Amino acid sequence: MCRWLAYLGEPLRPSTIVLDAKHSIVAQSLNSPLGAETVNGDGFGFGWYPTGAPQGAEPALFHSIEPAWNDANLRELTRAITSPLFFTHVRAATAPPIQQTNCHPYRYENWMFMHNGAIAGWRELRRDLTMAIDPSLYPNVLGTTDSEVLFHLALTYGLRDDPINAIGRAIRTVETVGHDHGVQFPWQGTVAVSDGTTLWAFRYSSQGRTRSLFHSADIPAIRLMYPDQERLAAFGDNAKVVVSEPLNDLPGAFVEVPESSALILDMDGYRHQPFLVG
């Protein structure tokens, strides 16, 4: 599978958590104790909304087929910019080829999307799922991954108006098509999607045994727990991180996202709600 990280809060140099954290996403690309694969070296992607960009602006993307731990450009980029909202994804390819168009995150207008997981039986389900994409959106599918198809299904089902319902409908479509093809547990994954202002994260699998996902506790609360941790000074009070694995070993600093749930993050805080239950 893969590992990913999403940040929302005061503008931050992404290197602070992408590179410099004890268990950063780059460290996870080389050693992922909670992942399905220990090494996630089949390329990576970094997407960000520039500081000061107007609402509705497109995010910028950087993709590479190099391992994240070996890419000097990623280090240069994440140390040179600041961003109030960014995604990072390191890939462990399941079946599709290793190429830049298969690296997350994906973009459509002001929306970004990334996924850790897989559609079971993808080779058999691919045609039916791809044909369910709105024809006006189909030309934007540039790669061969199940994740990109899921993103465009969600766009087809109204992602821009109701992200939670649209992601849910897209996953239910995967499950319906999968069951029609005799696949018992078609969907597995954690998903992040953003419009540049709000961040939505999802943890769900058809089997009820989804890959790991965590979010950070409130920064003021963490500071109270660990007043001597100087590295916390880099974060504003509204800083929030969602990540496949905790970025450090401080007890209480990261909270597991419940199974079958949607997580909504904005400048007002965190909200959980059940997702595809029943």
UniProtKB/TrEMBL annotation:
<dbReference type="InterPro" id="IPR017932">
    <property type="entry name" value="GATase_2_dom"/>
</dbReference>
<dbReference type="InterPro" id="IPR052373">
    <property type="entry name" value="Gamma-glu_amide_hydrolase"/>
</dbReference>
<feature type="domain" description="Glutamine amidotransferase type-2">
    <location>
        <begin position="2"/>
        <end position="278"/>
    </location>
</feature>
<dbReference type="Pfam" id="PF13230">
    <property type="entry name" value="GATase_4"/>
</dbReference>
<protein>
    <submittedName>
        <fullName>Class II glutamine amidotransferase</fullName>
    </submittedName>
</protein>
<keyword id="KW-0315">Glutamine amidotransferase</keyword>
<dbReference type="InterPro" id="IPR029055">
    <property type="entry name" value="Ntn_hydrolases_N"/>
</dbReference>
<dbReference type="InterPro" id="IPR026869">
    <property type="entry name" value="EgtC-like"/>
</dbReference>
<dbReference type="GO" id="GO:0016740">
    <property type="term" value="F:transferase activity"/>
</dbReference>
<keyword id="KW-0808">Transferase</keyword>
